[in-house]
Amino acid sequence: MIVGIIGTGNMGSILADALLQSNSVQASCLKVYNRTQTKALNLQQQHPQIEISTSIRQITQDCQLIFVCVKPGDMYPLFVEMEKVISKDKCVVSITSPISTKQMDTVLSCSTARFIPSITNKVLSGVSLITFGASCKEEWRQIIRTLAKNISEGIEIENNITRVSSDIVSCGPAFFSYLAQCFIDGATATTGIDKQTATILTEKMLIGFGDLLKSGQYSLPTLQEKVCVKGGITGEGIKILESEVGDMFQQLFQTTHHKFAEEISKIEKQFHEQY
């Protein structure tokens, strides 16, 4: 099977790296296309056996499974161009949350799916979010589930929870990286610890925290209970978090959903679909 990736920006490159690192796709069976060829060439330097396609038409004709990793506003015209040459036995996969499989099916006559990756897939971890188009063939569903399992934990979701699911698994690493940096900055601003040491300790703590959760020995609530000694230092710190965090995360999700609604509105105008 020849796999294509259209768009080799951050997420397209991460997806390519994950598929190759996991041996899900051989480099000689991967073709990529990017409007700015320099980005495609940068990826080819890391994986010399991949082939760079010269046009949307070429990569659509040459590949059976095609991941489209471009900005939401660029999807519709790209799908229209692909539809001119694509055959029904192929599968097109979007990695962007504002584009629904229902919208894809109004333009494309082949199997369709949405596959939202995370930066954590780069180390074959985290979650990939999957939604299949109504007419997606079972053979493609199984192939996509297998690819997701190879680079992550693949979780199938309904369209109505796409944004919040993407916030958690795809945006989450950026959100928690920001919180970790604030944690480090707070330590250096109020104590004698230097930034380098605080950063090392925080990173190692987060890695250990992830390993502990992965082991399944503790849930998030039970982990807090184990670390917090009644009347102890950790408990006093938790009190500050309880009083200061407030509705911060509610506001975060409200904001991302508001932005998501704006993007969907723009996309619907392109697809001439209201729902």
Question: What would your notes on this structure say?
Answer:
The chain has 275 residues and is of the alpha/beta class. Helices cover 57% and strands 12% of the residues. The protein is built from eleven helices and eight strands. It has helices spanning 10-21, 37-46, 56-62, 72-83, 101-107, 138-151, 162-190, 195-215, 220-227, 233-245, 248-271; strands at residues 3-6, 30-33, 51-52, 65-68, 91-94, 111-116, 127-132, 153-156. Strands 3-2-1-4-5-6-7-8 form an eight-stranded mixed beta sheet, with helices on both faces. Helix 7 packs across helix 8 (195-215). It is elongated and about 70 Å long. It starts with a strand and ends with a helix.
Concise account of the structure shown:
About 55% of the residues lie in helices and about 10% in strands. It is of the alpha/beta class and about 280 residues long.
In round numbers, the mean pLDDT is: 94
Which spans of ≥5 residues are poorly predicted at pLDDT below 50? none
Principal-axes geometry comes out as: elongated
Largest sheet: 8 strands, mixed
Strand order of the largest sheet: 3-2-1-4-5-6-7-8
Number of helices: 11
Q: What portion of the residues fall into strands of 2 or more residues? A: 5-15%
Radius of gyration: 21 Å
Any key phrases for this structure?
single chain, 11 helices, elongated, alpha/beta, 57% helix
